[in-house]
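Deliverable D2.4 — example input (structure tokens):
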């Protein structure tokens, strides 16, 4: 009996302790997982929480898919979002229905206009529909190091993250990006983008912070620098 009371008491203390901290929800990119954030190390006033992506239902829109992730978010405490690539797009959608204290997106897009032409072209002529999901994954493995050579600084990590991805997840997530129809966004969103991002070129982007020679993979390849910048943003710098 005494042991049970002690455990309950400790659980209550833990809940009170965590309730005073800000939860930072981390949304990875299309071909990555929580390891894309492994160099993000905020101070003790923050608790980092990794969002897990299920396979989207066939035909899901970005907005619909974003809302399926809401059960992973505790809105009873202070919280904010950090998203990379498609994770940033999901954050943009969630910012419309939730009230995070801040949204920071990295190597991402805030609306359809910021996507490169190839995505908008495929929306009109959906060639992606006829490409088998296995080919999409194989193509990603081949093209990733060619399009974003900076990833070779952490080559094994990026290879393993992509290898673990479900083929249906990749195909349906690409479909969501191609068919993303968002035209407006919350202008308080903080957007960090690199000048050497070949996946989402900066010429389409209205960025809050521009990282010279930063690639699409810079959340990891230049993680220490991202960490300093994110802390500065959170502190109002």
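Example output (designed residues):
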């Amino acid at each position: 009996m005494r042991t049970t009371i002690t455990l309950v008491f400790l659980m209550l203390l833990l809940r009170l302790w965590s309730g005073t901290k800000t939860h930072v929800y981390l949304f990875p990119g299309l071909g990555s997982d929580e390891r894309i954030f492994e160099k993000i190390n905020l101070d003790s006033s923050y608790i980092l929480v990794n969002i897990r992506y299920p396979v989207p239902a066939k035909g899901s829109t970005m907005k619909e898919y974003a809302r399926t992730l809401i059960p992973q978010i505790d809105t009873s405490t202070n919280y904010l979002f950090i998203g990379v690539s498609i994770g940033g797009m999901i954050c943009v959608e969630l910012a419309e229905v939730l009230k995070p204290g801040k949204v920071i997106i990295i190597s991402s897009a805030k609306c359809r206009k910021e996507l490169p032409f190839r995505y908008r072209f495929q929306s009109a002529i959906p060639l992606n529909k006829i490409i088998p999901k296995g080919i999409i994954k194989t193509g990603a493995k081949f093209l990733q190091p060619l399009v974003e050579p900076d990833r070779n600084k952490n080559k094994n990590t990026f290879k393993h993250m992509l290898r673990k991805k479900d083929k249906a997840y990749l195909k349906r997530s690409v479909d969501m990006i191609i068919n993303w129809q968002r035209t407006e966004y919350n202008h308080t969103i903080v957007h960090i983008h690199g000048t050497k991002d070949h996946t989402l070129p900066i010429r389409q982007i209205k960025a809050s912070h521009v990282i010279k020679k930063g690639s699409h993979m810079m959340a990891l390849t230049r993680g220490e620098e991202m960490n300093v910048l994110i802390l500065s943003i959170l502190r109002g710098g």
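The beta strands are 22-27, 46-50, 79-84, 103-106, 190-194, 209-211.
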